[in-house]
Structures are given as structure tokens and as C-alpha cells.
Amino acid sequence: MSGGDTDGRLVRLFALTGGRTRPSRADFTLITTVTAVDPPPTWATRPQPEHQRILRRCAEPIAVAELAALLDLPVSVVVIMLCDLLESGRITARAPHPVSCQPEDLDLLQKVRDGLGRL
Amino acid sequence: MAGSDVITRAAPDTVKILIAGGFGVGKTTMVGSVSEIAPLRTEEPLTAAGLGVDDLDGIEEKRATTVALDFGRITIGSDLVLYLFGTPGQQRFWFMWNDLALGALGAVVLIDVRRPETSFAAIDFFERRGIPFVVGVNGFYGDHPYPPDEIREALALPDHVQVLLCDARERDSSRDVLIALIDQLIAVAVHTGAAPRTDK
Ligand SMILES: Nc1nc2c(ncn2[C@@H]2O[C@H](COP(=O)(O)OP(=O)(O)OP(=O)(O)O)[C@@H](O)[C@H]2O)c(=O)[nH]1
Ligand SMILES: [Mg+2]
């Protein structure tokens, strides 16, 4: 935005991810929903504070983009940390509904249309 | 995905629609007028968005190395949520559109009626990729000097692409543009299915 502190911020952001700039898996999208597993699996180790911050925000299902906006972090950084949490069994992730304008999508499309009609 | 046998509160299905168009045509305004939440915003460092620092050559303000993305939400039901993403308007950020478009239901291309040419590239983008879209003509100051057919002709749009006059500031008006897009998608799905839909 203002640009002045961009470099310092970048450095801090990548400290959160241990210097990684790429997620370990590529299937998190902006509208993938994530939910904290409660209680966490017994084998899960204690999460880092920054991971803990994410876990608190996804006690209820939340989309990746929303999570990033609420935490004021770039999506790319949040995704890297979500990969850690997924691998340690602390969250579940649900992929978005695939849509291809095929007849099997009609129910979904009709549902969206009805929902918009109620606005 | 991993851990799918772990039962947590059921996450809803999610779908998205893009609100696209040139710089300053009213995309964020439209997202905000229909969203149930104030539009949210994320800032992405360009280096993290998959662009090497070297690729920033030619971008005049190298310090502004983030691209903003704003979005809104419409809860359709407890099991289905629609997200609206306003695409970054400035042309230099269009590399992000490919990612954004992936898995989208379709798009609304907004046009500023006073300078329609700024949205030509957006129309071209969706046409080339075969992504369904409707055109929303944002009146600005409520003015609609041209009828939809004239705009369709000027933009050389095929008949199946709807052109709607709208006011991005008005919730009802923005909603109607979204409904028109969904109707267009339903028509495609029915057509693809060949056999008319008789169930349900
Ligand atoms: N009078 C009037 N002003 C509008 C209308 N739609 C948008 N605006 C204003 O036009 C300006 C740009 O609108 P935005 O919604 O930010 O446009 P945008 O397409 O998101 O812009 P970028 O993201 O920068 O490309 C804002 O000041 C809006 O308040 C409209 O229908 N009428
Ligand atoms: Mg905007």
C-alpha cells in the first residue's frame, strides 16, 4: 500500500513460514474452507504461536481468503502455514465445489439462483 | 484431502464469481453492495504471488510491491457460500487473473459507460478462455445513454452474452446482474445436457 515498509514486512512474513515461499501442496485455493480439528489428534505436537493464531480463527469453518484477510497476512503465507497444520492433523480442508456447467451442476446453480433471489 | 475421516463441523460448499473490468469501473463497489460483510481485503507481495523480483522491471513504482484483492460473501444456505472476488483493475496485475479465474462459476465484466474501452481487455480475457460472463454497464450518476443492444454491438458480443444496465452502488441492481449470470449458466448446463430436465 504505502510501500514504505514493504521490505521489512516481507522479511517478517517469511520468518513466519521459516523462509519458505512455496506451500508443500498446491491444492489450497482462495475458497477452500478449513476447520480446526477439535480436540487435536493426540500425536499432534504443540503448535507454534503463529499457527495457534490460525487455529483460533478456524474453530468454525472459514475460507482461506477470509482467514488471510482477518489475520492481515498474504494468502500465500497463510497457505504455507495451513499446509503445516494439515500435515500435523490439526485442521481439515474442504476443496471448493467444482463447476463445469454440466447437467449435474444444475441443482447447485439453481440453489445459487434461489439464494440470490432471496437477497 | 488428508484426515477426511476426522469429523468436524461440516464445512459448507463454496463457489465464486469474479467481478472484473478495467481500472476504476466500480468492481469493489459492486462487491460491497451485494456482500453480506464489508468487503475484505488481502495484500499479496508480488514476489510471493509467483513473480520473480526481476519480473518487476518495467513496473514503474517498484516499492508498491503488493497487489490487493478484495472480496465479499453471500451465504446461500448453511451448506453453500458464494464468494465474489473483485479482480485487480490495473493491467499490470492481470497475471493474477488466471489463478482467480480457476474454478469460478463465471464473471461479471463491469463497464464504465463513459469509457467502455477500459474493459475491452477483460472481455477478451474471458472470451479467450471460454469462461462464461455477462456484461454489466455501470451507469455512473445513474446515466444510461445507450441501450443494451447498442453496447452489445459496439463490443461485438455474441448473442448469448447478456448486457445489463446497472448501478454498482445498488444492492438490487448488482444482485440482478449476478442472477443474469447464473441464468446464463443454467441455460448452458441445460443445453449441454441435451435432454430437457424433468426430474425434481
Ligand atoms: N457516481 C457513481 N460512482 C461510482 C459508481 N460505481 C463506483 N463509483 C465510484 O467510482 C470509484 C471507483 O469505484 P471502485 O468500486 O473502487 O472501482 P474498482 O473497479 O474497484 O477500481 P480498481 O479496483 O481500482 O480498479 C469510487 O470512488 C466509487 O465510489 C456509480 O455507479 N456511480
Ligand atoms: Mg477495486
UniProtKB/TrEMBL annotation, chain A:
Entry's InterPro entries?
DUF742 (IPR007995)
Instruction: Check the record and name the Pfam families matching this protein.
Output: DUF742 (PF05331)
Put simply, this protein is called DUF742 domain-containing protein
Automatic annotation (TrEMBL), chain B:
Q: Which InterPro entries match?
A: Gliding_Motility_GTPase, Gpn, P-loop_NTPase
- Recite the UniProt keywords alphabetically: GTP-binding, Hydrolase, Nucleotide-binding
Record keyword Nucleotide-binding present: yes
Which CDD domains does this chain map to? Answer: Ras_like_GTPase
| Gene Ontology MF terms | GTP binding; hydrolase activity
| Superkingdom of the source species | Bacteria
Q: Which Gene3D superfamilies does this one have?
A: P-loop containing nucleotide triphosphate hydrolases
Report the sequence similarity comment from the record: Belongs to the GPN-loop GTPase family.
The identity of this protein, by name, is ATP/GTP-binding protein
Q: Which species is listed as the source?
A: Streptomyces guryensis
